[in-house]
Amino acid sequence: MVAYSGGRHRGASPLVLPSGRRDAAFSQPLPPSFHRLYRRGCRGGGGLRVQRFRHRGVVNGDHLRYYTAVVHILKGKLNQVRLGYFKGPDGVFPGVVRGKAVHPLPDGFYGTPAARSYALDSLKVLAPCRPSKIICVGLNYHDHVAELGSLPPEDPVLFIKPSTTVIAAGEAIVYPGMASRVDYEAEMAVVVGRTARKVDAGAAADYILGYTAANDITARDLQKKDGQWTRAKSFDTFCPLGPYIVTGLDPRDRRISLYVNGERRQHSSTKHLIFDVYTLFSFISQIMTLNPEDVILTGTPGGVGPLKLGDTVTVEIQGIGRLKNYIVAEVDKSIPSAKFC
């Protein structure tokens, strides 16, 4: 990210993001309003992250500019916003949620919000991003490894889910006819903000758009039968995401829980990850190019277990919200898509 090194306002010292990076700087003073907002945003370690902020004093290239004023940081008040895709009377569009209204983002998530808005309850909330791939991490919580009687892996254990597994909050998870056990797995998901290749862990935050909740649905019997994970993880509807992408979060200590029909089955915190978010991002980017809106599932905590037809399953992550879905049989066409968001 960027250091503030130009000018002084009332004797203030230069601003440096929590990572301590100073690769790029402002050669002109920023206004006091930004200085105050930055200080406020840093309480809790996340800092204000505004990419592609068009200040005349930015130097050292595009790769370290602040996240766009989709959050309108100089005029406004927020360092966290909710982003997603919505379907309204004029079709599908990306937007930013402000209270009970949604403002379209005609130029995408890094664009400026339109002045016009729609009432949130008048829109269908879609999956919050459109990934070209979903990279998943197995065995990445200490408690999950312990319940399996395993040892922590030396490197992240990776697998990929196809984009066709993605559904939104409130949509149905289809129980495949060829499976006899389907499990839930609550996970925090990282949404890529811009193209990343061979990124250092210390710079990973600069490439992350935000975070959302995920459920890595798995046909457990097929996973054991096949001896590898592709079929078990890849059925259509097996990757619920949502309800929104939340920007500006510190991912290092987020409570994560999962409920089946209101009963808590999983409960942990991302502080128990074996490989943290930034380490995972860097490791994966050494292997493959990450494209905007690609998703990284960071692993599931202990307590994984089975689902049955008719169940409602909810993933809840502190600061992100609740991702609720329900289970239907593959042949059941009668249950309409609900809207739980």
Q: How far apart, in Å, are the first and last alpha carbons?
A: 33 Å
User: What structural category do the secondary elements indicate?
Assistant: mainly beta
For this structure, what is the CATH class of the largest domain? Alpha Beta
**CA-atom Rg in angstroms:** 21 Å
**Beta-strand segment tally:** 20
Which spans have pLDDT < 50 for at least 5 consecutive residues? 1-78, 337-341
Share of helix among residues?
Answer: 10-25%
- From the 3D coordinates, which CATH architecture of the largest domain would you assign? Alpha-Beta Complex
What is the averaged pLDDT score?
A: 81
Q: What letter string, H or E per element, gives the SSE order? A: HEEEEEEHEEEEEEEHHEEEHEEEE
Largest sheet: 12 strands, mixed
Question: What fraction of the residues are assigned to beta strands by DSSP?
Answer: 25-35%
* SS element count, helices: 5
CATH fold category name of the largest domain: Fumarylacetoacetate hydrolase, domain 2
Summed up, the domain count is 3
> What would CATH call the homologous superfamily of the largest domain?
Fumarylacetoacetase-like, C-terminal domain
Shape: globular
What characteristics describe this protein?
11% helix; Fumarylacetoacetate hydrolase, domain 2; mainly beta; disordered N terminus; 3 domains; SH3 type barrels; 341 residues; 5 helices; 5-stranded mixed sheet; disordered C terminus
